[in-house]
Write a structure and sequence with these properties.
There is one protein chain. It contains seven helices and nine strands, in the order βββαββαααβαβαββα. The protein has helices spanning 40-47, 80-90, 95-108, 124-136, 154-169, 181-187, 205-216, and strands at residues 2-11, 14-24, 29-33, 55-60, 64-67, 142-146, 173-177, 190-195, 198-204. The protein is globular and about 55 Å long. The mean pLDDT is 87.
Length: 221
């Protein structure tokens, strides 16, 4: 269960979220739409407790897995292996969980030959692979995604998309931010539309997407 009531968020006294209240449906995928600067990434960080709300309440029941800025929290000077344990701890994994899953995480990321290499020496694609692999091995109750459904080269994209599908099919409650409106139409049950930090609308996916696209074409105010 994930519920927000009258949440607001301000950064350096500049309000970016205003009095938002809603329940995210359990076991469903809720999409969030809005132009750049509308508050989409901010609300995901508030829901993930990365940035506590300035006002209001966020009620969470279960394990939350945020897949936001994938490579954030990694140390460039530490090895890949050391970073798996460091970033895993930041994601809330126990040391035993990482020990048990370490080989799967490394092999899924196709990075076995680089586990003792400093993180800074990896390519950006390799960094994304290990970050995605590590983040996606949790079994969450609530999954929070910011434009992260697949990463890496063509072959790895297929693997990461399959991993995401497995998570969705498991009944996890998902909140998805995406600029790909067809992706929102295809995947989501409900849609939240944000504009300048306010709730512009919330409801049926097709209706909200139609209204959003009409608004973006300037067909109504």
């Amino acid at each position: 269960m994930l519920q927000v009531k009258n949440i607001s968020f301000s950064y350096d006294e500049n309000p970016t979220l205003h009095d938002i209240s809603m329940d995210f449906e359990e076991g469903r995928i809720t999409g969030i739409l809005g132009v750049n600067g509308s508050g989409k990434s901010t609300i995901l960080k508030v829901l993930s407790n990365i940035m506590p709300a300035s006002a209001g309440t966020v009620k969470v029941n279960g394990v939350v897995a945020p897949l936001l800025e994938l490579t954030a929290g990694f140390d460039d000077e530490m090895t890949v292996k050391e970073n798996v344990y460091l970033r895993g701890a930041l994601l809330g994994y126990t040391k035993k969980f990482i020990e048990d899953k370490y080989d799967e995480i490394i092999d899924f990321a196709e990075i076995r030959d680089f586990e003792d290499v400093a993180f800074r020496k990896l390519s950006s694609g390799m960094k994304s692979k290990i970050a995605f692999s590590l983040a996606s091995f949790v079994k969450p109750d609530i999954l929070i995604l910011d434009e992260v459904l697949s990463v890496g080269d063509i072959s790895f994209k297929a693997k990461s998309e399959q991993r995401m599908k497995e998570l969705f099919d498991s009944g996890v409650t998902t909140i998805l931010v995406s600029h790909a409106i067809e992706q929102i139409r295809e995947m989501c049950t409900k849609v939240l539309w944000l504009e300048k930090g306010h709730m512009r609308g919330y409801g049926d996916t097709q209706e909200m997407c139609d209204e959003y696209e009409a608004y973006m074409r300037g067909e109504h105010a």
